[in-house]
Every structure is written in structure tokens, then in C-alpha cells.
Amino acid sequence: MSLLFRKPEVRSVESWLAGEPSARTVTEHEATYLTPVFAAFRHLVDYVSTLPADFYRVDGDTRTKVGPPELIRNVDAEFGLENWFGQAIYSIASQGNAVGKITQLSGWSLPTMIQWACGENGVSWWVNGQALPDALVAHIPWIVPPGCKRGLSPIEHFASMVRAGLSAQEYADIKRGGGVPPSILKNTAKSVDDEFASKVQELASRSFARGKPFVTGADWDLSMVTIPPNQAQFVQTLQLSANSIAAIYGIDPREIGGTVENSLTYTTDESRALNRAQNATPYVVRLENAINKWLPQQTVMKLNMNARIRADIKTQTNVVGAKLLDGRLNVNEARALDDLGPVPGGEVYNVPQLGTIAHTDRPA
């Protein structure tokens, strides 16, 4: 499934200097060329798509761990589960909606194969130019306004800010038509043709590349070009883009090249891991809730965010010890955290009861 994107527009140096506004329409694809936008996508996609997925069968208050259901097995075999999760999160972050086509159904009319599409538009759901009924559409929205079923597109709503960041990058990229020459060699005595100018340019560039001054005859004037004051705002625009984009996606600016003043976080690897988990929680919850609607009854998926939080050894040992004591873990489960095999009798849980420790084969 594909979506044809427009070719990025490149503005001339003259238009920058004249302060002409850009009429560019920024697409989701083009926005990824702005470094903070791509960094935000990468941060969310990498984090969520690599979380371990656990599946449980819920029967009243009892939750039993089970293997992956058919939908998960199928997408894992065809795309890889991490890629499938990543496609959904990318679509949410770029378009405000993850839209997929249900290509297989079980006997209970539950989806057993979903292929995420690159885009959707129009009043109805469209995939590759084909309108689909709601029954064949898998949809995970981001922020949904009242009375709507589609989520807001962050790139569409903040196109002006993304456009400003792209403009700043293009201004410094001479190959794409932006920027200004770093220096000017001017013959004060006569005009020069293209051939003569090219020879002088080559000689001067060769000298500058070796870190040596350019020496030539009389009637030549060398001037170094600096960014005009009215164009210095582009440098500031690049610095501010990361913070603005981080605010849109609800993530820490430092994850995408921004800055935070007077912050006391990130003092340890654990605090950074906790911060990343907080950044991704809204996206994880939306993904879990949507997928759980497509799974068989009483089967739920849980993405294990705790697996990405690594405490120091002393803290981790104390936490595991507390969980053993109050019955949240048994010995074999605790050993599995350190990649150790089970031991006889290790399936017993400690359950505190009225100040004493009772033993049971299952947690209360």
C-alpha cells in the first residue's frame, strides 16, 4: 500500500532575501526531512515497537499468561511484530491515524491479518484509491475532536512550524538552492567571462581547501560574506524547532535535540528510562486498547514497559526481594529475571495474611 507524495519545493535565495512567504504544502513524508520531526518519530517508533508483548487470558480476577493469538502470529510471520507495531505508531505520529485494511477474518469475524496503509483521505475510508467499509478497516486514532472519528494530523495542523524549520535547513543548503556564497572575488578593473571566472574560482577554492591564502594579480577584491541580520532568525528557528515539536508530541525535548532549562532529571539511566516510558505511555495505551478489541474474547495484550526500565543492581535486588516477600513474584519468576533456570519448589508464592506468611501455588 502506498501513497504518492509531492516533490519538496525549493525556494530561491532571492525569495529568502525578499522575505516572500512560502506557499508550500508540507506533507507527512516531507516533514521527516526536518531533523526534530524525524527524531520524534524515531523516538516513539523505536521505543514502542521494541517493547515485549505479553498476552493473558482473563477469567474474572484470574489472569493466565497465554501464547500470541492468531492475529499477532500472522503479522509477526509476515512483517515482524516490531515492524507492525512501528508502522502503526509512525502513522499515528505522522497523520494522527493508523489506518489498516483487514485482509483476513476468523470464523468469529475477528481480524487475523491487518496491513497498515500509508494514508487515508475523503469522507469514507480509502486505501490505494479503494473505498472500504468500516468492517474492513482497522483504525487507531490519536487526538479526536468531538463529533469526529479521525484523529488530528499533527503535521497538517502545525505545517507552518514545520515549514519554518525546513526553510531554515534549506537556507543553509546551497546544493538545494539555499544559502549564500561564503566569499566573493571581484575583479575591480574589468568584467570577466564564465570561463575565466571558473578558473579563478577553482584556484581560489584549491588554496582555501589547503588553508592557504589565495594570491593573484592586481585588481582583485576578496570579501567574506556573513549571514545578514534579517536572516539570522533561521539559526534561531532551527534551535527552537526541537522544543516546539517535542511539545506537540508530548516528549522530552532532549530526546530530539532540544533543551530544558533548570532540569534535574536524567541524573541516572533509570531516570531517563522512566522519562522515556512516560513519553510513550499515551501511545502505548492507544495501541493496546485498539488491539485488544481485535483479539478473541477474554484475551488481552500488555506491552511490558517495565522491561525497558533498568535500575542499579542494589535497587533491583531490593525490589525483587520485596516482590518475593509480598507474593507478587515466586522464586522461579525472580530467577527468570536474571536468565536463571527454575528450581524445585520455586513456583510457590508467599502471601501475607494477618502478619504471617502463608504459602500457595497461585497468587491471591
Order of helices and strands: HHHEEHHEEEEEHHEHEHHEHHEE
Specify the number of helices.
Answer: 12
Radius of gyration: 29 Å
Our estimate of the beta-strand percent is 15-25%
Number of domains: 3
pLDDT < 50 runs, ≥5 residues: 1-23, 174-180, 228-232
Biggest pleated-sheet summary:
3 strands, antiparallel
Decide which structural class fits the backbone. Answer: alpha+beta
Annotation, overall tally of beta strands: 12
- Can you list the strand order of the major beta sheet? 2-1-10
Summarize the structure.
This protein has 364 residues and is of the alpha+beta class. The protein is built from twelve helices and twelve strands. The longest helix is centred in the C-terminal third of the chain and has 26 residues, at 269-294.
Provide keyphrases for this structure.
364 residues; alpha+beta; 3 domains; three-stranded antiparallel sheet; 12 helices; 12 strands; 17% strand; elongated; disordered N terminus
List the SSEs and their pairings:
Blueprint: H1 13-18, H2 28-31, H3 35-49, E1 53-59, E2 62-66, H4 70-78, H5 81-95, E3 97-105, E4 111-116, E5 125-127, E6 130-132, E7 137-141, H6 154-157, H7 159-171, E8 183-187, H8 194-209, E9 220-224, H9 233-249, H10 269-294, E10 299-303, H11 313-326, H12 331-337, E11 349-353, E12 356-360
Helix pairs in contact: 3-5, 3-9, 4-5, 7-9
